[in-house]
Each structure stands twice: as structure tokens, then as C-alpha cells.
């Protein structure tokens, strides 16, 4: 069975049409071995992007609570040197953030040229949780799809490549993960009352995501619907997507200046030794 990761821009996306448990017939060992291979390659590609310092990449991770955003970040960070990486989590906005437009804090977190950013949640919260919890009036969030597309186009034209991943888990799998968190003392801290409240609005969240994925799925910043019930398959898909993205960019080391070789042992030091005056 095949399942597309990506839907052509302009076509409606319905999450209900995508199987969150899809794993392409692979088993865990196969997937983990493949993921490791992608991660090794990622490290080298990220290093080249860093050395080139002309373009940047941002991996946007969205999904409902427990969909595996933290685990995906752990996997990517295991493959990329921290000097090339910026990880940013977007929580409920602070008073300062709320006193600006909704994209202000996002723009400030965009990685500089040469770097890879990972967004744990993003500006898509402003058309999903904000809509479901009715934090702003409908005409305000309704305008935001076009505003997000314009923002992403601006960044794309400036040399930023988006890898937007929706981590798609099923309702049954979410229940299991919430139960695990409730029972495991090492995970209980991750749960807040909002998480259980949000679960009651499952259908509203799915609808809000259908709209965000459909309306903000562009040629320059497409969405990928990552089957995420199996953590090992989710990791494989995201690692492969990021690797393929970097390979397409073909980052290159800056040209070498051969005159530097002669300068290594040259006596003609540009620095005057101390006390020579
Ligand atoms: P996470 O669930 O990502 O591990 P938290 O438990 O701290 O981290 O949850 C962050 C919360 O902040 C989520 O409920 C998310 O929906 C919320 N949030 C993020 N961005 C916004 C926003 N722009 N407006 C309102 N709530 C937001």
C-alpha cells in the first residue's frame, strides 16, 4: 500500500484520509537502521550548510499533544552538531509577545544563514489552538492563512527552506500515550489539564488542522503528513525528509584561497611584534 506524504497545493487535505499507523511494510529494526544512515549523512550536510553560511533551513513540527514532537527533535539533534542547530519551542505567548503581531516572535526565531532551526510548534498554533479555544475572533484567525503564506514566501525568497511536518497520530494512539504519561512518574510532568481538555475537542482540532494544512500548503513551503503512530517510522520519515531537503540544496564549502598556504610560514607578519617601536 502507498500513502503520499505530500498533497499537491490547492487540493483539499483531510487527515481522516491518512492512516496514522502507516509504516510502509517496514519493521522497527529496518526503520531504525535506515534512520541512522540518514542521520550520519545529515551531520555532514548540516556542516556544509554551516560552512557555506548563505542559506538556512527550518523544520516545523506540528501535531496534537503527544504526537512526538520532542522525540523527533531528540532524533534530529542526535544527527546534527549543536553548533549548526537552533531549537525553539513555542508556548502560549507572553504578555510582550501578545503586544506584537502574531508573527513577531516567529520571525525573531528564524535561523540565521548556515543554520538549521527546529520549531517545536510554530505560527500554526495561531490558526489551530487559537481557533479551537476561541482566543481571537474568527475574522482575525481567518485572515492569518494568507498572512502566513505571505510571511513564508518572504522568508523563502530570502534563502530559507521550510520542512513542514505534521506528525499525525490516531485518537486511540493518543489515548494510550496520555495513559502512559499519567502512570509514568518520569512523564507525569508533561501533562497539564489543557491536554485532557484539548482531547475532548479532538474533532475540532482535526478540522482546524485540515484547514491549516490545505490553505498553507504551497510550492515554496509544502506540508508533509507524517504517519506518527509508530515512533520509529515517524523518525525515519522526518530524517529522510531533512536529508533530501539538504541534498537538494547542495550546500558547498566556500572557495579556498590558495594564497593562505604561502602565508602559513611566511615571515612577513602583518603584526608588528611587541616592543618593536
Ligand atoms: P508541549 O505540549 O509543546 O510539550 P507545553 O505543554 O508547554 O509544551 O504546551 C505549550 C502550549 O502552548 C500548548 O498547549 C500550545 O497549544 C500552546 N500555545 C503555543 N502557541 C500558542 C499560541 N500562539 N496561542 C495560544 N497557545 C499557544
Total domain units = 1
Helix content: 40-55%
CATH architecture: 3-Layer(aba) Sandwich
Shape: globular
Main pleated sheet: 5 strands, parallel
N-to-C span: 80 Å
**Class by SSE composition:** alpha/beta
Counted by DSSP, the helix tally is 11
Number of strands: 5
Strands across the major sheet, in which order?
Answer: 2-3-1-4-5
Order of helices and strands: HEHEHHEHHEHHHEHH
| Poorly predicted regions | none
Mean pLDDT: 94
User: What fraction of the residues are assigned to beta strands by DSSP?
Assistant: 5-15%
Q: If you compute it from the alpha carbons, what radius of gyration comes out, rounded to the nearest whole angstrom?
A: 22 Å
How are the secondary structure elements laid out?
Layout: H1 28-52, E1 56-62, H2 69-79, E2 85-89, H3 95-98, H4 104-108, E3 116-120, H5 129-132, H6 138-157, E4 160-168, H7 171-183, H8 193-200, H9 202-215, E5 223-227, H10 231-249, H11 259-264
Parallel strand pairs: 1-3, 1-4, 2-3, 4-5
Bound molecules: adenosine-5'-diphosphate.
The site of adenosine-5'-diphosphate (ADP) has 14 residues, from α5.
